[in-house]
Structure formats: structure tokens, C-alpha cells
Amino acid sequence: MNMLKNQVETILPTEWGNFRMIAYSANEGEWMPHLVFVHEKTNFETPIPVRIHSECITGDIFHSTKCECGKQLHQSLDYFQENGGVLLYLRQEGRNIGIINKMKAYNLQKNGKNTVEANLALGLPADGRNFEDAVQILQDLKIKSIYLLTNNPEKIAAFEQSCIQLIDRIPIQIKATVHNQNYLETKKTFFNHFLEL
Fold first, then answer.
1. What pLDDT is stored for residue 60 in this prediction?
2. pTM to 2 decimal places
3. Which of 2, 88, 105, 170 is the most exposed, fewest CB within 10 Å of its CB?
4. Strand residue runs (E) in 15-160
């Protein structure tokens, strides 16, 4: 496991309030560090709301309707605006297959494959992410107990053997659309995400 370090931090004003923005990587020359956003309302004396969000260029930036990633991100930021909290933005594009392979998978999906089948057809894992870096970053921030904004049981499992106490899960429910219904159904049936469809 790479030992991640706080390389630099700054204050980032946003429409959701001010965040302390921190770049974490093993070395300062890393062009794509994990990014952490600590909302100004965050109370480190109590369990902290945390969102672990894997990068999704298409959803987060360009508001693709093929997934609900961007909507999950914004719902989390809305929550932090009211309650404080920490966003961990992990550089794991496309379940950690990268944007080029993600686009190839999109093309396979046009021919009827779901997201898992498309990844496997490309010789890639269904989900290549891991959340050890997230645990390491939270430990470096001296966070001892959290509420996790997630529907993903794998993120919950990441804390079972850690020294960080997971108090509870805060669900993020996004209404399905004609474009992402199949994607969300795959999340629920294959990955056992906690979704109401």
C-alpha cells in the first residue's frame, strides 16, 4: 500500500460554502492525487458525515444521464452545506478502469451488455476499485467515527477491519431515468447496492 501524504491544502470557496481542499498522494509530483474537501461546518468533536466518491468525469462534470454519479455528488454537497462533512474524491474513474476503457464499455453497452458484462468483455474487473486509500486518508485527518453517505456495501465493508468506527449509513437515493435504469438495476442486483427502484 502506498503511504499517502497531505501534499498541499488550500481554501476553496464554492456555492456550497467554503471547503479546506487537500491533495493526497504518495509523492508531490503526482498529477492526479486524491482530493479531500472538508466543509467549514465540520465538527471534529462528533462523528463526521463522509462521502467517498470515485471520480466520474462523464457524470460529475458533464452531467451524463447514463449514471447517477453527478447527482450523488451534488446531493452529498447539499448535505454538507447543511451539516458539515468530508468529501473524499478518489481518482478511480469508471470503477478504476480509466476513461478510455469506460468509453469502450459504453460502446459495448449500446449492443445490449450491462456495465458488468461490458467490463468483463474487455477483460477488466467488474469493479476494480478499493477503498483502502480512503481509510488511510481519514486516519491521517484524525477522524475516528463517521456517518457514511453511500448505497455501496463495499464501502461499508472497508471500515469493518479499520480503526474508524462507522456509526451509520446515510442513503443517497436518486430517481432512475430512462437512460440509467439498467445501470441502477445492475448496481442493485450484481453489486447489492441499497437502492429503491
1. 96
2. 0.91
3. 2
4. 17-25, 34-39, 48-54, 86-90, 145-149
